[in-house]
Specification:
By secondary structure, the chain is an alpha/beta fold. The protein has a single domain (13-326), classed as TIM Barrel (Alpha-Beta Barrel), CATH 3.20.20. 33% of the residues lie in helices and 16% in strands. It has ten helices and twelve strands. The chain has helices at residues 39-50, 82-93, 136-155, 170-175, 190-207, 231-240, 266-276, 289-297, 308-312, 316-324, and strands at residues 9-11, 14-16, 20-22, 55-62, 98-104, 117-118, 132-133, 160-165, 212-217, 245-249, 279-283, 303-306. Helix 1 runs parallel beside helix 2 (82-93), helix 3 (136-155) packs parallel to helix 5 and helix 6 packs across helix 7 (266-276). The longest helix has 20 residues, at 136-155. The structure holds flavin mononucleotide (FMN). Residues 23-26, 59-60, 102, 164, 166-167, 215, 249, 283-286, 306-309 line the site of flavin mononucleotide.
Amino acid sequence: MDNKLFSTYSIKDLTLKNRIVMAPMCMYSSENEDGKVEDFHMTHYVSRAVGQVGLIIQEATAVTPQGRISSKDLGIWSDDHIEGLFRLTSQIKSYGTKTGIQLAHAGRKAMVDGEILAPSAIPFNEDMKTPKEMTLEDIHEVIEAFKQGALRAKKSGFDVIEIHAAHGYLINEFLSPLSNKRTDEYGGTAENRYRFLRETIEAVKEVWNGPLFVRVSASDYHPDGMAPEDYVPLSQWMKEQDVDLIDVSSGAVVPARIHAYPGYQVPFAEAIKHGADIDTGAVGLITTAIQAEEILQNNRADLIFLARELLRDPYFPRTAAKELGVTIDPPKQYDRGW
Ligand SMILES: Cc1cc2nc3c(=O)[nH]c(=O)nc-3n(C[C@H](O)[C@H](O)[C@H](O)COP(=O)(O)O)c2cc1C
């Protein structure tokens, strides 16, 4: 049977050469604390492009300085960020790899100086700062920052935008009833809790008509929180808003014990894919080609996102091709060793 991992995947006008995606991973390495790309980022991301990854999604990149997880996060809140990002996307693309960026706001999980923002004034845990409950003006400002971030992402040459709505960061804090206790139109019902994401998607789409992914945390691992079945209607709404793919992760809205094992989040990707009839990405402890192939062949997800395995093996596509008995071309410089 033909393998699927090395089959192409198309969304809108974009075609990926394989289904292997580098999942966003914060590197906390903007050492100058100005959000700019530095030498490390070039080495780190371009190595995975040399390794033949189909799509690289750059780490959570902050749309406002206050929305950074740490002061060393990459940022896209200023036009000054475009030059470095453009250099990075150009290099990645020169190896045939497509580029994505995860636009993010850390909300109550921001560990930066000054005031931090969230839907409600509830800290993540006792060690973290108590956030300010966002006013309607704050809400509109952050949505505008996502839009400006998307415009800069376009100018920086990215092929895909992924909105970070997972892992207990700002958008996820609006979606979950555990962190959103608002009594206005942004809190209460699922539709109201979705409003912030809805308006963020609308704002991004005003300036971006390319492929759009949204990363969600499909389970809060809490009896009063969000469960995978709650994300089916939300994903239908995202589909109506022309989102192309849901990148299905889980957890981190509230402190909770997560029992993680190989492929533990794949059933969530599968439930959303079939429940909302939308493409999904599977992520989480996927480490071998056979495992990836099982997910794709059984139609449980459309793309395979890898994080830590790509830290260990930047040439994972080569490793995976060998495992599946497939031949993939190296960059021309590596012909003699591949
Ligand atoms: C060092 C590191 C940084 C991460 N940073 C991000 C991030 O910026 N955005 C995000 O959505 N997930 C982030 N994650 C989560 C990964 O994208 C991925 O979902 C998780 O590691 C599970 O996949 P894996 O088992 O292949 O590592 C990070 C994970 C690691 C290990």
